[in-house]
Design a protein that fits this description.
Chain lengths: ~280, ~220
């Protein structure tokens, strides 16, 4: 959601007259009724199929359930934070390679960036899980999930960084050149500090993609939130309730990250760069 | 196993996998656009509850991890009396998620138009339908081309989710485990699938850029 969607939404309509106001009220009532009926049907379906029975929900009254889920959540955090940090460094390096004046380096960086952006993270996970062990390389499950997630994110982050660098006005480079600064110094002292500031909100919003990518950690049986939920499901035989609760936890976490990113974007007065994000998984 | 040997043994399967990936991408994206259109109409309608439903849909489905939704659709819905086959499950999941992002793109497209233009249109006496048809939609569609291109690539990558359910024939990501469970596919099995994805994204990207260059509004 960009700057202020509400203003445009409201601008589409004139201030309603008495007739229109009546129609809006009628529409509102009809919509409310339809929504209520829809919700009632969903709840009824849960009730009819017996999914509201207390035995499916009693496990959420136990402390052990929540502490086990919390352990899983810590696992998710560990993977997300490590992958995010790795992707930051790698993305920065790839971006610097991409914008460098050296022909082959720029070409190679571009190829790597496009590859990681054009390939699903799940495929990269299968690469680390199925392909690499065949060459006799053993790796703990933590790295089998963290490395592919980091690689997938690094391609996108490189493009985000590049957009940030491009957003720094060209006059700044020209001014620095006329002061006699070298290319490397201009990048380190003039452009990067400003570019990083611009991209902070976008980096935060990319964290959502990283968190989503970690949910396939069960492929490599790393105990993250989803994997621990699956363990609880096989222990308590409460599949429906558990999957819904876990989904809600993920939604709340990602919603919070998105809100933080929007908040930062407003404070820094920098837009969230979504131009190059192609991975909604 | 070398690439050549892989092709002679599994060439047919890889072709089927590629078609599977493409068909899931195309169908899901088309359905997602239709849903996104409805959701976006909800979100700009003057009826409060509909706006809330539209916003709620977008917040839920842009924030839910694909796998989390997929396991609900595939394994939880049958308990609630809704049983779909595996391919449909995967496509429903992809469609729901992509629709949320598509609606966001449409909203951004609408927002770039600017309040001033609407006010100007109204002051020369255009009706609401005319404003939509002549001012809002042409501009919103044009500025949404590039984001939608990226979203189509995103949809392509999201179809990898389908490797988490037993699909017949498997799609490109599922092929890697299919090959590896039968013979030592090694790095080649991975790269054939990767090229399938990267090549398709490249093609989609260049077509999108071409269309965008032709219809872009220079501001």
């Amino acid at each position: 959601m960009s700057a202020s969607p509400l203003s445009m939404r409201d601008a589409l309509y004139e201030a309603p007259g008495p007739k229109m106001r009546k129609r809006i009220v009628a529409g509102t009532c009809a919509a409310l009724m339809l929504i209520a009926i829809g919700l009632a049907l969903v709840v009824r379906q849960f009730y009819v199929t017996g999914q509201l029975e207390p035995r499916y929900w009693a496990l959420f009254a136990r402390g052990t359930t929540w502490s086990f889920l919390a352990q899983g959540f810590l696992g998710t955090l560990r993977v997300a934070v490590t992958a995010g940090a790795l992707a930051l460094v790698l993305g920065l390096v790839l971006m610097l390679g991409r914008i460098s004046e050296i022909g082959w380096l720029s070409m190679a960086s571009r190829l790597i960036i496009d590859f990681f952006r054009g390939v699903p993270s799940l495929l990269l996970i299968y690469f680390f899980f199925l392909v690499i062990p065949k060459y006799g390389i053993r790796m703990p499950s933590f790295w089998m999930i963290t490395l592919p997630v980091a690689l997938a994110a690094s391609g996108v982050l490189a493009e985000v960084f590049r957009a940030g660098v491009n957003a720094v006005p060209a006059g700044q480079t020209e001014a620095a050149l006329s002061l006699g600064m070298g290319d490397a110094k201009i990048m380190a002292k003039i452009i990067l500090p400003q570019a990083l500031r611009i991209v902070i909100p976008s980096l935060v919003s990319q964290l959502v993609v990283v968190v989503k990518d970690t949910t396939v950690a069960y492929v490599v049986s790393y105990p993250d939130l989803m994997q621990n939920a699956r363990v609880l499901i096989s222990n308590y035989d409460a599949l429906v309730s558990m999957y819904f609760v876990v989904a809600i936890i993920y939604i709340i976490v990602n919603f919070a990250i998105n809100q933080l990113s929007i908040h930062l974007a407003h404070r820094e007065n920098a837009p969230i760069i979504t131009k190059n994000t192609t991975n909604p998984v | 196993m070398g690439i050549g040997e892989l092709f002679s043994t599994y060439g047919e399967n890889y072709l089927q996998a590629l078609v599977q990936t493409w068909s899931m991408t195309a169908i899901s994206f088309a359905c997602a656009l239709a849903i996104a259109l409805a959701i976006t109409v909800f979100r700009v309608s003057p009826i409060g509850p509909l706006r809330i439903v539209g916003d709620f849909y977008v917040q839920v489905f842009r924030n839910i991890p694909g796998v989390s939704l997929l396991v609900i659709v595939t394994y939880a819905l049958p308990y609630l009396g809704v049983t779909l086959d595996y391919k449909t499950c995967a496509m429903v999941t992809i469609t729901m998620v992509v629709a949320a992002f598509a609606s966001e793109n449409l909203m951004t497209g609408i927002n770039t138009i600017g309040v001033g233009q609407i006010e100007a249109a109204r002051s020369i006496g255009l009706s609401f339908a005319q404003i939509l048809r002549n001012v809002v939609i042409p501009q919103a569609v044009r500025s949404a081309i590039l984001p939608m291109t990226n979203l189509l690539i995103g949809t392509l990558l999201t179809t990898a989710l389908a490797s988490q359910v037993p699909l017949k024939p498997p799609e490109l990501t599922g092929m890697v485990s299919y090959v590896n469970s039968r013979s030592i596919g090694g790095i080649g099995a991975f790269f054939i699938s990767a090229i399938g994805y990267a090549g398709t994204s490249l093609a989609i990207g260049s077509v999108g850029n071409l269309i965008d260059k032709r219809v872009r509004i220079l501001r």
